[in-house]
């Protein structure tokens, strides 16, 4: 069985809604085990468990959240010897355009190294039905890719 990890940080609840939508989409693939974890609860052992990962963050002052940054700070060096090279995607709840948060995650992910396999989903403003659907599709796409052996 393949493993998909969804790591997110949320203060207002918007990113949590998007994370739950990615989980719902991923859960459509019965032969992929999916875990949804808050960034502050996830660690290196979770990275070593998964075959693909989705990172969710609010955009805070044009940057990823402190909670997700903390996850990267805690796991980067312990994970480095493993050269993970696993597939990943990003979803952002943005008050602005989300590009700063996205670019910072992409920059950090290259160091693990991780492989970006999906276009980032950036939901600007209030979480909409369209944003929820996009996150469901993102979750399903990564899970389906794992199920089919693409990632």
Automatic annotation (TrEMBL):
Originating organism: marine gamma proteobacterium HTCC2143
UniProt entry keywords in alphabetical sequence: Flavoprotein, FMN
Ranges annotated as spanning the membrane: none
Pfam family name, one: FMN_red
Entry protein name: Flavodoxin
MF terms (GO), sorted A to Z: FMN binding; oxidoreductase activity
Gene3D superfamilies: 3.40.50.360
PROSITE patterns the UniProt entry points to: FLAVODOXIN_LIKE
Domain Flavodoxin-like per the UniProt entry, residue ranges: 4-151
Keyword Lipid biosynthesis: no
